[in-house]
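Researcher: Checking consistency across runs. Here is Penicillin-binding protein again:
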Amino acid sequence: MPLSYPYRRPGTPLRRGLAALTATVLAAGALVGCSADDGLTGSADAFLAGWRSGKLDTVGFVDPTGARVPAGTVVEEIKALSGDLAATPPALRRVGEAEVTKNLATTTVDIRWTLPGGAAWAYQRPLRLRQNSGDDKWQVIWEPQVLHEQLTKGDRLTLRRTAAPRAGLLDGAGQPIVTPRPVVRIGLQPGEIPDVAALVGRLDAAFRAVRPPISPPVDLADLPQRLRDADPDAFVEVVTLRDEAYRQIRSRIYDLPGTKFRSEKLDLAPTREFARALLGTVDPAQADDLAAHPDRYAKGDLVGHGGLQGRYDERLRGAPGTTVEIRRPAPEGGSTVVTEAFRQEPGPGQPVRTSLDVATQNAADGALRGEKRRSALVAVRVSDGTVLAAANGPGAAGENLAFTAQVPPGSTFKTVSALALLDKGAVTPQTTVDCPKTRVVDGRPFKNSDDFVLGKVPFRTDFAKSCNTAFVALAPQLGPDGLAATGRTLGLEGSWDLGADVFTGKVSTGGGPTEQAAAAIGQGTTVVSPLAMAGVTAAVARGRFEQPKLVLDPAPAAPAAAGPPLRAESVAALKTMMREVVTAGTAKALADVPGGPVYGKTGTAEYDDDPAHTHAWFVGWRGDVAFAVFVEQGGSSTASAVPIAERFLRALR
């Protein structure tokens, strides 16, 4: 039905009764449901499109009095009124049918703003149009209330953001890993310091005495300048220490001139190094965070960096709250008027529950404490595969080697080789296998550590003493793919989904005699991570592979399936040999560790062409805890990895 109306000049007769009836109806009230007219709908739609694009040249405008308004003025006013929302115009659409009374029409517009963080602000506003009597064209009646009912000229929409409470990481018992813990803020009052250089020297010596060492070290280089720039009675902060670290040096610094101390509580993990490489950190948003995700973060937000804090940052940080306010210029002598137009409360973050056990993690961190080389210790519960601890050294920071290192396993891989040989029936623990000093394969010599010789001894002795030449002799019986096949039954090379990045290993396959010989002793192209080897060790102790589990909630979507039961006779024989490693082999230092029998295998792995360059390993289990120790460039396993294992087991009692 047309939305134009018959117009009769004064004195012109009505020629038809229908025309007279129509005029009577229009004069009596509104005509509803006439929105099909291209003139009215076209003008309305052109305005909505131009609102979003900023181009309104094809639309005519008048103000509520009927005075013409330039399209450019409307564009400028829409931008000014939109304020903080100007860069993200709303989605706009007409809803329902227009109401028309004489030369005035009203249509309803659905307005939907997408606010930072994804919040949706939706409402409807009437859009009024007037038909020009001269050319029958419909013009938009422009007024600030088109954007929002509370807007007037000079107002602007502003955004206020409220950060959501960040949720925490939970341990295996469902308790927060990070909780409020006592700290001491150490500061100086400049006016009470007679000799700044002497004070700085004594503070530096005290901070360096803290154990474990503060990482990164406290940098006092700019402290003298900060003291000079500060007011004499100011509190110039030097460092904030955990209470246990402060107590180590309290007697050395408490009475120093100018020192001041403030006791507080901060949200912290149980210790400074507690699974830090795995968990990651939470820090104020950095410049690169803001640049990469301007729609996600704002200055002052807490952001997860690295580890689980980074991976699950969106879940942990929740959804920020958003408030849209209308700011009206202050009247003369008054204050800016602020009216709330929309509010979405922040959505608190959701916690992430891990499998970590606080006591086991503390024991693992303590075992690596003081280790100057890059190192890792990962522990897995045998009964269900949950990861109990993931420690990395030195210090609290660094890469999560426990999960992601890709390094040769050395003789710890003889666990896999021995299981493969036992499964094939190639040997039993009592089978005599010669252990000479050197064995040559296709012109390449293979030697034992320190060139030891055992001679003709039972295979169990070759295993306990870690005889390379014996395993090299047996390698042909495994064929080019035997090791890889057995490794896969123990979880190696699998697709593990445990909620964190992990390298599950790559086992040598398809190589010639030399590569097969090297692979049998954990060299060649075989590489693993400590967690992969802890998974192997737990599989032997358990009798089948179960993927290690770390993040329990939210549960990973696609964990690896459990492996088939291992051959009972082979597992029993391998367990006997792994026990002999501790009672009579290369890990005899663990024989008197209390708490039950320890099973294990040492490993020294060459990582380049220099035989003197080696990583050190120990894998094993006691009771329900399987574990792997790795020391990068650690040399002899008995001198580095085994002592770490001993410290771990003694602390775990």
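Researcher: Does this match what you'd expect to see?
Model: One thing to look at in this run: Confidence is low (pLDDT under 50) at residues 1-36.
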